[in-house]
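Morning F.,

Quick status update on the modeling queue. The single chain you submitted on Monday has been processed. Sequence for confirmation:
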Amino acid sequence: MKRAKVTEKEELRDRSEVFQDRWDAGEILAGMLKPEYGGRDDVHVLAIPAGGVPVGLKVREILNASFDLVIARKLKIPGNPEAGFGAMAYGGGRFLNEPLVSELRLDESDIEAETQVVQLELEKRNRLFREGRPFPNLSGRTVVLVDDGLASGYTMLSTLRMVRDQGGRSAVVAVPTAPQRTIDRLRTEADEIICPNIRTGMFFAVADAYVRWYDLQEQEVLDLLAEKASPGSGKPDRESVLSPVY
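Structure tokens below.
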């Protein structure tokens, strides 16, 4: 069984508040990625909205790589919308937590009903964030998947499946923070995992890795993508960052 290489910063293991904000996290993450992936024309960065966008924009800037968004959402447990039994990504990726599906006794009709609901939501968010553009051609490319952190990791697993379905040559998961158990879960699906802040405690929250943390709203993501770059800001304009790759 494949086991992805994992790179972390040992000095950040099990620590909290190691990043000032998402831009700072993206800079640290990009510094770890740059020796292998910086300046390569086969590298494509995909960020997961909402929180992954500022992290991904900073990674894109430092790597000088192509950039786009990948839309993914969890499949919610019937009657418990805060929890999920898997996730889906726009473009075809779906990942189910099979042990949980069995434990909850969800049948195919339950799964299909939620799949249809999430598919409509993915299409709506794709129109909102990507203006409905065709998805970039990932065939033969090295894809760097970026978010601001992982909890269960099922959303990231769905994007990994999507990258495989789209013919990506290799998939690199790049996140500032994640629990060890989730890193282990992703190692059979990813080709490489870059995560500076890995934590091993029983309780985990992505927010604990940041000094300044808040949930990004949809309009803030749109503003980030639309904002013209100012000198040294590292925030490219929407036209430049969301240009399709063929």
